[in-house]
Write a structure and sequence with these properties.
Membrane topology (chain B): Multi-pass membrane protein
Order of helices and strands of chain B: HHEEHEEHHEEHHHHHHHHHHHH
Protein name (chain B): ABC transporter permease
Organism (chain B): Algoriphagus ratkowskyi
Shape of chain A: elongated
Structural class of chain B: alpha/beta
Strand order of the largest sheet of chain B: 2-1-3-4
Keywords (chain B): Cell membrane, Membrane, Transmembrane, Transmembrane helix
Largest sheet of chain B: 4 strands, mixed
Number of strands of chain A: 14
Main location (chain B): membrane
Largest sheet of chain A: 6 strands, mixed
CATH architecture of the largest domain in chain A: 3-Layer(aba) Sandwich
Order of helices and strands of chain A: EEEHEEEHHHEHEHEEHEEEHEH
Number of strands of chain B: 6
Helix content of chain B: 55-70%
Oligomer: heterodimer
Number of domains of chain B: 2
Helix content of chain A: 25-40%
Strand content of chain B: 5-15%
C-alpha cells in the first residue's frame, strides 16, 4: 500500500528524517512509534503532501505520490480542530467535499456515520456546543467519511474517555476488516499491542526498528526470569530476595549466559520452584530500551 | 479549482449567514438618511414651532438699529441696563444686548445677557449685524454713501472647464469632484482595513484551532489562502451592493418625503447659507446639472471597482500572510506596521495633497505606487486623469497584488504549520526564500 525509500527531510540544520525506508502492506494496522520530535509528524505530513521531502521516494499503491492520492488518504492529525461556529452537518459536508466526494455522496455517507455512532440528534448543533468527546467523534467521522483505503491516525485516542476510545478502537478494527490500511502514530504502547500488526520505530530522524510485534519482541530479549520459591531448604543469597510473603520468595534473575534449564537446576537446590517464567518485555520497555540504546550508541 | 470554489463558498456563506453581518449591512445605510432626516426634522420643528425671541437692546450710542429676523425680534427702548436685565430675569425677554458708549473706531464692551447660554448662531448673527452697522457708520462719517458700497459689491464665480486633446469641453466643478474622490477614497480605505482584518482573523482561527492541518491535507495551502481572500471579497462586495441599493432607496424616500414639505433650496441654505447663496446667485441650476452630467461616471465606477478589488487583493494577501505567521491576533501587531503605514500614508495623502491638487508630483506618485494607488487614484479619477497614468497605475497594481500574493503564499505555506514560535522579520524572509 505504502512504500517509502530513502526519505530525507531537514529544516535548516535540523535533520527531521534521514534515509527512512518503510513498507506498509495492505490491510494491516501499522504502528509508527517514536518519542516526541523523532520525525513522525514530518513523515506523516510528507505522506499527506502537506510538505515535500528533500530527497527519497514515496509510493502509494505502487504509484509515485501525486496530488490525486489525496483522496485515498484519511488523515487525523494529532492536533485537531473544527470550525467552532459551524454546524456538525455542514462541517462534515465541507471536509467530505474537500476530499473529492460529490455533494450527494457526501450526504449519504454522513447520514450513515451519524447513525452508526448514534449522533443524528447532533447534526444541527454547532461544534462549540459539543463536548470534547463528541467533537472528537465528529473529527473521526470527517477523517473516514470518504472511505479512504489508507488511514493515518496521529494519536487517535488522546482526548477520548475510555468508553469513546473503545468505540473508536472498534471502528478502526472494523475498517481494517474491510481492507483499510491503517497507520497509527502513537506513543501509547498498550494500544499498539492491542491494535497493531506491524510497527516501526523512529528516533532522532532515523528508523531504528521495524517488523511484526513478535519480531520486534524477539529482537530485544533481556533474558530475565521471574521466579517464586517456597519451602526453602537452603538460605538464598541475600542479593536475590525481592519480596517475601509467608515463606514464599519472589525475585528475578538474568540468565547470564546460562541455559534456562541450568538455571532451573540451580534453583531447585534452594527449595520448591513454584514459578519459573521468562519476562517478555512490553512494547513500552522495548521502546524505552531502543531509544536509550540508539542514543547511547 | 473545484476545491478553491468550495473554500470560497464556505468563507462566503459562513460570514453572510452571521447575524452581525445582517445587522451591520442593514443598519449602516439606515444611519445616513436617518441622521439627515432627523436634522431636517429638528430644523423644521425649531423654525415652525418656536415663538419669536425678543431681545431687548439698550444702545447708549443711539446709533444702531438691528433688523428683526424670523427668529429674533429686537426691541429698542430707552430703559436702563438694570431695567433690561430685570426683564430678562422675569422671563419677558429672551436676552438683552447692551451696547455701551464707545469710540466708533474701537468698539468694545458690548455684552449680551441671557437666561440661558446663547447659541453660537445668535452671537455671530449679532456680531455680523453690528459689524455691518459700525462699518456703514464709519463709511458714512468718512463721506462715502453706504449705498454705493452695496452697489459695487460683486459676486464672482469661475466656471471651470476641462479641455481634452480632442477639444471636448467639459464643465467641471471642484466641489463635486472633491466629494467623489473623498467618498471613494475613504470607502476603499475602510474596506481594505475591515476586510483585511477579517482575512487575518480567519487565518489565525484556522491556524490556532489546528483545522488547517486537515485542510492542507486536502488542498494546497495556496488554494486555501486564495479561496479565503476571494470568499471574503465576495462578502464585502455583497455588503457594498446592498448598501448602495439601500442608501439610494432610502435617500430617495427621505428627501422625497421631506421635499414635499421643504423646498430643496431652503434645506441647502440651512445647511450652509453662505455657500448656497453664492451658488444660487451666480450659477443657475442648469449649470450644476451640466457639471454633474459632465462627470464620466462609467470611468469612475469602473475605476472604483478595479481599485476596490485591486487594493483589497493586494492588502488581503499581506493580511493573510501575517495571520499565518502568528499564533494570536495580539502577536500580529508587530507585523501590522508595514501594512498600516502605506495605507495611512495614502489616506493622509488623499486629504493633504490629492484632493487639493490632484495633479501635483506627490499626488502623481501616490497614485502610481501600488501600495497607495487604490486610495490615491480614486481621489484623482473624478478630476480626470490621463489615460496612460491610469493604465500605468492599474498595471502596477496588478503586478503588485500578484507579487504580494506570491510573497504571502510563501509565508502562509510554512507559517500555518508553525506553532509556538514567534517569528521575526528574519524568519519571514527565510520562509519567502525557501523553495519547497
Amino acid at each position: 500500500m505504502l512504500k517509502i525509500e530513502k526519505l530525507n527531510k531537514s529544516y535548516g540544520a535540523n535533520k527531521a528524517l534521514s534515509d527512512v525506508d518503510l513498507t506498509v502492506s495492505e490491510g494491516l494496522v501499522f504502528g509508527l512509534l517514536g518519542p516526541n520530535g523523532a520525525g513522525k509528524t514530518t513523515l506523516i505530513r510528507i505522506i499527506n503532501q502537506i510538505i515535500d521531502g528533500d530527497s527519497g521516494k514515496v509510493y502509494i499503491g505502487g504509484e509515485l505520490l501525486a496530488p490525486k492520492h489525496i483522496e485515498l488518504i484519511g488523515y487525523l492529525p494529532e492536533e485537531r480542530g473544527l470550525y467552532k461556529k459551524m454546524k456538525v452537518w455542514d462541517q462534515m459536508l465541507y471536509f467530505a467535499r474537500l476530499k473529492g466526494l460529490s455533494s450527494s455522496d457526501a450526504r449519504i455517507k454522513i447520514k450513515y456515520w451519524l447513525e452508526k455512532l448514534e449522533m443524528e440528534t447532533w447534526r444541527d448543533k454547532k461544534i462549540e456546543d459539543l463536548s470534547k468527546g463528541m467533537a472528537q467523534k465528529v473529527q473521526f467521522i470527517s477523517t473516514v467519511i470518504h472511505n479512504p483505503p489508507l488511514l493515518i491516525l496521529d494519536e487517535p485516542f488522546s482526548g477520548f474517555d475510555p468508553v469513546n476510545a473503545e468505540i473508536i478502537k472498534d471502528e478502526i478494527l472494523e475498517l481494517k476488516a474491510k481492507g483499510t490500511t491503517v497507520i497509527l502514530s502513537t506513543h501509547r504502547m498498550e494500544s499498539v499491542e492491542l491494535l497493531c500488526d506491524q510497527v516501526a520505530m523512529i528516533n532522532r530522524s532515523k528508523k531504528i526498528l521495524d517488523g511484526t510485534i513478535k519480531q520486534v519482541k524477539s529482537i530485544y530479549r533481556p533474558e530475565v526470569y521471574s521466579i517464586t520459591l517456597d519451602q526453602l531448604t537452603r538460605d538464598l543469597p541475600t542479593e536475590w530476595i525481592l519480596k517475601e510473603d509467608e515463606g514464599s520468595y519472589s525475585f528475578t534473575l538474568p540468565l547470564s549466559g546460562k541455559h534456562p534449564n541450568e538455571l532451573l537446576n540451580e534453583l531447585m537446590q534452594y527449595g520448591q520452584v513454584n514459578r519459573f517464567q521468562e519476562l517478555i518485555p512490553s512494547m513500552e520497555e522495548i521502546f524505552i530500551h531502543q531509544v536509550k540504546s540508539t542514543e547511547n550508541g | 479549482m473545484d476545491k478553491i470554489w468550495l473554500v470560497i463558498q464556505r468563507e462566503y456563506v459562513s460570514r453572510v449567514k452571521k447575524k452581525s453581518f445582517l445587522l451591520v449591512t442593514l443598519l449602516t445605510p439606515l444611519i445616513f438618511p436617518a441622521i439627515m432626516g432627523v436634522f431636517v426634522w429638528i430644523a423644521m420643528e425649531e423654525e415652525g414651532g418656536q415663538s419669536l425671541r425678543i431681545i431687548e437692546v439698550v444702545d447708549d450710542n443711539k446709533l444702531f438699529f438691528l433688523e428683526s429676523s424670523d427668529q429674533y425680534a429686537f426691541s429698542f427702548s430707552d430703559s436702563s441696563p438694570e431695567e433690561a436685565k430685570k426683564l430678562v430675569q422675569e422671563g419677558n425677554r429672551y436676552g438683552f444686548l447692551h451696547i455701551p458708549k464707545f469710540d466708533i473706531t474701537e468698539p468694545t464692551g458690548i455684552s449680551f445677557y441671557g437666561e440661558k447660554n446663547p447659541s453660537m448662531n445668535l452671537i455671530s448673527y449679532l456680531e455680523n449685524n453690528l459689524r455691518k452697522k459700525i462699518e456703514e457708520q464709519r463709511l458714512f462719517e468718512s463721506g462715502i454713501d453706504p449705498q454705493i458700497i452695496n452697489d459695487v459689491r460683486t459676486q464672482v464665480a469661475i466656471k471651470s472647464i476641462t479641455l481634452d486633446e480632442e477639444g471636448t469641453e467639459t464643465v467641471s466643478d471642484a466641489t463635486v469632484n472633491y466629494a467623489i474622490g473623498f467618498v471613494a477614497g475613504i470607502m476603499i480605505y475602510m474596506f481594505i482595513f475591515i476586510y483585511g482584518n477579517q482575512i487575518m482573523q480567519g487565518v489565525i482561527e484556522e491556524k490556532s484551532s489546528r483545522i488547517v492541518e486537515i485542510l492542507v491535507s486536502s488542498l494546497k495551502p495556496f488554494q486555501l489562502m486564495l479561496g479565503k481572500i476571494i470568499g471574503i471579497a465576495g462578502v464585502g462586495l455583497t455588503q457594498l451592493l446592498i448598501w448602495i441599493l439601500l442608501i439610494g432607496i432610502l435617500t430617495t424616500i427621505v428627501t422625497g418625503f421631506l421635499g414635499l414639505q421643504m423646498p430643496q433650496q431652503q434645506a441647502m441654505e440651512m445647511a450652509n447659507p453662505e455657500m448656497t447663496q453664492g451658488l444660487m446667485q451666480n450659477t443657475d441650476m442648469g449649470e450644476i446639472l451640466q457639471v454633474i452630467s459632465g462627470i464620466n461616471y462609467v470611468q469612475i465606477a469602473l475605476s472604483f471597482v478595479f481599485y476596490f478589488l485591486g487594493g483589497y487583493l493586494l492588502y488581503g494577501a499581506l493580511f493573510a500572510g501575517i495571520g499565518s505567521a502568528v499564533d494570536s491576533p495580539s502577536d500580529a501587531q508587530q507585523f501590522m506596521l508595514p501594512v498600516t503605514i502605506p495605507l495611512v500614508v495614502a489616506y493622509m495623502g488623499l486629504f493633504v495633497f490629492i484632493l487639493n491638487d490632484p495633479n501635483s508630483t506627490t499626488s502623481f506618485w501616490l497614485s502610481i505606487v501600488p501600495l497607495t494607488s487604490p486610495i490615491a487614484m480614486m481621489g484623482r479619477v473624478s478630476y480626470g486623469v490621463p489615460f496612460w497614468e491610469l493604465a500605468l497605475s492599474m498595471g502596477l497594481l496588478i503586478v503588485g497584488f500578484l507579487l504580494t500574493t506570491w510573497v504571502a503564499g510563501k509565508i502562509y505555506r510554512i507559517g500555518i504549520l508553525m506553532h509556538g514560535t514567534k517569528p521575526s522579520y528574519k524568519t519571514l524572509w527565510k520562509w519567502i526564500r525557501t523553495n519547497n
